[in-house]
Design brief:
Blueprint lengths: L1 E5 L4 H12 L3 E6 L7 H10 L4 E4 L5 H10 L4 E4 L6 H6 L1 H22 L3 E7 L22 H19 L4 E7 L1 E3 L18 H9 L6 E4 L11 E2 L1 E3 H15 L4 E7 L5 E2 H12 L5 E4 L8 E2 L4 H7 L7 H14 L4
Parallel strand pairs: 1-2, 1-4, 2-3, 4-5, 5-6, 6-11, 7-10, 8-13, 9-14
Antiparallel strand pairs: 9-12
Helix pairs in contact: 1-2, 1-8, 3-5, 5-6, 7-9, 7-11, 9-11
The chain binds nicotinamide-adenine-dinucleotide (NAD) and uridine-5'-diphosphate-4-deoxy-4-fluoro-alpha-D-galactose.
The site of uridine-5'-diphosphate-4-deoxy-4-fluoro-alpha-D-galactose has 21 residues, from α7 and β8.
Length: 334
């Protein structure tokens, strides 16, 4: 298959590019570098030992989108491109709706007009809202509390409507839990701009001495050690799930949502201690107030991914922290 990755220069997209090429498919990366930079392409080429096809562009640009899809004779699209910071989405809802909703609609129009009807969409466990039960399966009620989450849920619904309107479409919405870690080579990983919002890149920068201490957002949750529990998944396992999803799309039609998680929850303190082991030194932290909007615990039931995609996460928490540290050491931030 020839697979276009919108947002393919980003954290999850770059790891997915590696796994797709290594499973024998062709990849075209499409990105506007709003949250990534061109150096990732050279690093991908070092991992893969071959050139990577790249097209610069914005998913909101219909004619560019159409041109690229046509030029490369694309069979399927994995749609990562979008904005992803929950806090920023509250401050800038219009930017989020424009990028994530208008961008997706423009991509879908270009695909439809060219008869390309296979899509894998980067959704999120955020669509489950506050868990009513755990583990979270795909039938858990959906609800969202911020514009970012709303864009994910709305795109899922748009895709479902599209599949009802035209049974030729094949759409898999992958609901990611918490992707962390990095490629084993240490060449690609997560390198957010500015102060990280998410736990792992923050811990990595504390371990590297760039930030002084991790702020642990609350230790009075109803969890074994009082800190928040999440289903952290190695980004390479997540990337492999996309290969299985693309292959699934080529022989199934219709819309489906599938969780990508491990089924195991770890606390903030579990993460800090695993990272200390990985980097061989203490990671200073302090307990601070809860972060508004956080839930106590959140982990996946990954059974559907196993049944439909034959996919199961392989890496453990220690691997995730070691690979993150390996990347952090190789790729110091500004
Ligand atoms: P990322 O920011 O590293 O990657 C997104 C890429 O999309 C970037 O390279 C960015 O430059 C590009 N992009 C953004 N807007 C674009 C546009 N209009 N046109 C073209 N390119 C554009 O983020 P990521 O962590 O790799 O996440 C990828 C997807 O997965 C996103 O849709 C995100 O919402 C979703 N997701 C991420 C997480 C997570 O924790 N990382 C969790 C759940 C879902
Ligand atoms: N945390 C801290 N200190 C930090 C950052 C986070 O203690 O500096 C804690 C949080 O309170 C939470 C855990 O670490 O308990 C994980 O927080 P993250 O910000 O890394 O991840 P979230 O689970 O809050 O959010 C992630 C993605 C969202 C997505 C959501 C879906 O960032 O985009 O998963 O489950 F919507």
């Amino acid at each position: 298959m020839r697979i276009l990755l919108t947002g393919g220069a980003g954290f999850i997209g770059s790891h997915t590019a590696v796994e797709i090429v290594q499973s024998g498919h062709d990849v075209v990366i499409f990105d506007n570098f709003s949250n990534s930079d061109a150096s990732v392409l050279e690093r991908l080429e070092r991992i893969l030992g071959r050139p990577v096809t790249f097209e610069e562009g914005d998913i909101r640009d219909y004619s560019r989108m159409r041109e690229v899809l046509q030029k490369h004779n694309i069979d399927a699209v994995v749609h990562f491109a979008g904005l992803k910071a929950v806090g920023e989405s509250v401050e800038k809802p219009l930017e989020y709706y424009d990028n994530n909703i208008t961008g997706t609609l423009t991509l879908l129009r270009a695909m439809r007009d060219l008869g390309i009807k296979r899509l894998i969409f980067s959704s999120s466990a955020t669509v489950y809202g506050t868990p009513q039960y755990l583990p979270l399966d795909e039938n858990h009620p959906l609800s969202v509390t911020n514009p970012y989450g709303r864009t994910k849920l709305q795109v899922e619904e748009i895709l479902s409507d599209l599949c009802v309107s035209d049974p030729e479409w094949s759409v898999v919405c992958l609901r990611y839990f918490n992707p962390i870690g990095a490629h084993e080579s240490g060449l690609i990983g997560e390198n957010p701009r500015g102060i990280p919002n998410n736990l792992l890149p923050y811990v990595a920068r504390v371990a590297a001495g760039i930030l002084p201490a991790v702020q642990v957002f609350g230790n009075d949750y109803d969890t074994p050690d009082g800190t928040g529990v999440r289903d952290y998944i190695h980004v390479v396992d997540l990337a492999k799930g996309h290969v299985n999803a693309a292959e699934y799309c080529s022989c199934h039609k219709g819309w489906i949502a599938i969780n990508l998680g491990t089924g195991v929850g770890y606390s903030v303190l579990d993460i800090i201690h695993a990272y200390e082991k990985a980097c061989g030194k203490p990671v200073p932290y302090k307990i601070v107030a809860r972060r508004p909007g956080d839930v106590a615990s959140n982990w996946a039931n990954p059974q559907r991914a196993l049944e439909l995609l034959g996919w199961k996460a392989q890496y453990n928490l220690q691997d995730m922290c070691e690979h993150s540290w390996n990347f952090q050491k190789n790729c110091p931030v500004e």
